[in-house]
Design brief:
The protein is of the alpha/beta class. It has helices spanning 13-24, 31-39, 43-66, 84-92, 103-112, 116-119, 128-146, 158-178; strands at residues 2-6, 27-30, 72-75, 94-100, 149-152. The protein has a five-stranded parallel sheet, sandwiched between helices. The relative contact order is 0.20. The structure holds shikimate-3-phosphate.
Length: 179
């Protein structure tokens, strides 16, 4: 069973994913990092070349490949839920955890993250703050709909978030065993 982390940019999917992988003794993979490695280009370069459309095509191929392996912690890009085929594949052998946070917190985290320039090209013509507000409002129902577990990370440390996720996984796995 894979543990899949979904959620908006800045919710801590990569950092929390690494903590989870370490604590659970599983391998960790970040679909954005793997995508960049495989393409030999940054996400920003891909957007510059073919826009969001090209990026979503490549992202879907990466998701399909990554889901073939079992028993890993997988951190996904914030827009992975936009394609139904991605969700279907991730679901097949994975528990889906939605990391949520409020707009002010995400704005602060994204702004302070050194990876933002490379990994997070603009997705709209809005200001950074308005873009988060607008996209989060439109995506939150999608994240919610596909998640097995939702956790609000706004006031939680990354370690505490990981602990809550692990507690949930234990209950989830026990329930599965009971049938
Ligand atoms: C995106 C989020 C990014 C990356 C790409 C698109 C999005 O990943 O996949 O820039 O549409 O929200 P992170 O969520 O890891 O920042």
């Amino acid at each position: 069973m894979n543990i899949i982390l979904i959620g908006f940019r800045g919710t801590g999917k990569t950092t929390i994913g690494k903590i989870l992988a370490q604590r659970l003794g599983k391998e960790f993979i970040d679909t954005d990092e793997y995508l960049e490695q495989k393409q030999g280009k940054t996400i920003k370069d891909i957007f510059a070349e073919g826009g969001e459309k090209l990026f979503r095509e490549i992202e879907a191929q990466i998701v399909a490949e990554v889901c073939l392996v079992d028993d890993r912690v997988i951190a996904t890009g914030g827009g992975v839920i936009l394609r139904e085929e991605n969700v279907r594949r991730l679901r097949k052998n994975g528990i889906i955890i939605f990391l949520d946070a409020d707009v002010d917190t995400l704005h602060k985290r994204i702004h302070e993250d050194a990876q933002t320039q490379r990994k997070r090209p603009n997705l709209t013509n809005l200001s950074a703050y308005e873009e988060i507000k607008y996209l989060l409002a439109s995506r939150r129902p999608l994240y919610d709909r596909v998640a097995d577990f939702v956790i609000n990370t706004t006031r939680l440390s990354k370690k505490d978030t990981a602990s809550k996720i692990i507690a949930f996984i234990h209950i989830y796995v026990k329930d599965l065993r009971k049938g």
